[in-house]
Amino acid sequence: MSNDTLQVRRIGIDTYHENVAYLNRECGLYRAEGFQALSKIEICANGSRVLAVLNVVDDAAIVQPGELGLSEQAFAQLNVAEGSLVTVNHAEPPSSMDAVRRKINGERLDQNDFNDITNDIVESRYSKMEMAAFLVATGQNNLDRDELLFLTRAMLKSGESMNWHESLVADKHCIGGIPGNRTSMLVVPIVAAHGMLIPKTSSRAITSPAGTADTMEILAEVNLTPDQLHQIVRDLRGCLAWGGTAKLAPVDDMLISVERPLGIDSQGQMVASILSKKLAAGSTHLLIDIPVGPTAKVRQMRQALALRKLFEFVGDHLNIHLEVMITDGRQPIGRGIGPVLEARDVMQVLQNDPDAPADLRQKSLQLAGRIIEFDPDVRGGQGYAIARDILESGRACVKMNDIIQAQGSKPIDLHPGHLCQEIIAPYDGLVTHIDNFQMAKIARLAGAPMMKKAGVDLVKKLGNPVKKGDLLYRIYAEFPADFKFAQDLAAQNNGYTIGDDEQLIKPLIAF
């Protein structure tokens, strides 16, 4: 082994969408080249090349002086056998950081700037700190509508795209912020049973207690290869899969890996993320659900209307038929918050269980009905009745079971975690307010979505009368530490307001 080569060692660390390399401090190459911790390096072997962030190690049990350790993702990308010889050099700084700095200073970026930035991110030239700088620079209202269009185009070009060779490929997306709300898992089987193509690729939770992919994973495999996804959709007209394995707009997944721990979910990034993913998935017709409520992501009707205009502007320029529904976001949808509890709610609705949450059923039928009206053979106003017939006849349940089997069914256990805390009403009155953000936070502290059985199970909803001592909801957890965090938060603020009828916020009319 020459002085300028090192042996690759696989370090079993999941660094989540970031390539990380490990050098021993006593390594001659480390000393000779002047590498520093958190600098970026270029690793080459047998024609393969990856860029990684460097960590410096003082423990030879982790990596020895003649070795280069690689995190799981970096090792997979380099694609060489453990022990292979590699060369290591300083990596060129990403030139597109100049554009990020210009954006931080308030300048407007053009299409080429966004193309360069997304390309550098996908090529792993950005560290997570640099991605955070980009997210902050473009966060809140720092993108005008043209910049938003440029960003969406750039994100779309960052990966592969699907072409279903059909004139109508339907999809739906909720902008989030409402716990529960697993309408996609009901809309997909209803619409697919109608015969329309609806290949639903979903993300995992960013700041919520569960995403559609997290909940569907209770019932079936969601990590499908592109070939598997195509075959299932061809056979069954629909699927419910995680979008990450399909390499659709991969820069979005990399940015989400930074957004999640920072709790960032800006309006511009959200629009670009949703539309780039949907266009990459081959969608031609898209329904966007924007819930509005005092503790939703969108809290006022004027904000919802402005957001609708942004979606429509970008959608029009990227040739996707897009409609927006503004819905009631005053409280969680359904009873369960967390993967297992939400999966239980979905199956109850599909099985026409009389105990199924009525609000989840009703909203899903409204959304499915609107999508069915994309069908040129369906007259406006008929969609809801068609969707209801598909659900009540059991055809939606059959379709869902077929999708579950095709994706790879799992042993289904819909029982929540074994640790349980009951939260009770402190006095008589009416439930006048439920804080979406607080309920989601309690469920997350309980362990959701990582702990699938953790979460919150609601018993009382808005407008329900309560007596002192009545059960409002239950907290479920699998581990004592998570359980205590959730208990402590609920003790500070249980998320419920008990008052009288005059204090009850009136619902918005969906349109």
Write out key terms for the chains shown.
511 residues, 4 domains, Barwin-like endoglucanases, four-stranded antiparallel beta sheet, alpha/beta, globular, Transferase, Pyrimidine Nucleoside Phosphorylase, Chain A, domain 3, 39% helix, six-stranded mixed barrel, Pyrimidine Nucleoside Phosphorylase, Chain A, domain 2, 18 strands
Summarize the structure.
The protein is 39% helix and 19% strand. It is an alpha/beta fold and 511 residues long. The radius of gyration is 24 Å and the shape is globular.
What this model shows, in words?
- A hairpin with a 2-residue loop joins strand 3 (40-45) and strand 4 (48-57).
- Helix 5 (128-137) crosses helix 10 (250-262).
- The relative contact order is 0.11.
- A 6-stranded mixed barrel has the order 1-5-2-4-3-6.
- The chain is globular, with a radius of gyration of 24 Å.
- The chain has helices spanning 28-33, 72-78, 97-104, 111-122, 128-137, 145-157, 184-194, 212-216, 226-236, 250-262, 267-280, 301-317, 339-350, 358-372, 383-392, 395-407, 436-445, 480-492; strands at residues 5-10, 20-24, 40-45, 48-57, 67-70, 85-90, 170-174, 198-202, 238-242, 285-292, 321-328, 336-337, 419-424, 429-434, 455-458, 465-466, 471-477, 496-499.
- It is α/β, with parallel strands linked by helices.
- It folds into 4 domains: 5-90, Barwin-like endoglucanases (Beta Barrel), CATH 2.40.40; 97-157, Up-down Bundle (Transferase, Pyrimidine Nucleoside Phosphorylase, Chain A, domain 3), CATH 1.20.970.10; 170-407, Nucleoside phosphorylase/phosphoribosyltransferase catalytic domain (Pyrimidine Nucleoside Phosphorylase, Chain A, domain 2, 3-Layer(aba) Sandwich); 419-503, Pyrimidine nucleoside phosphorylase-like, C-terminal domain (Aldehyde Oxidoreductase, domain 3, Alpha-Beta Complex), CATH 3.90.1170.
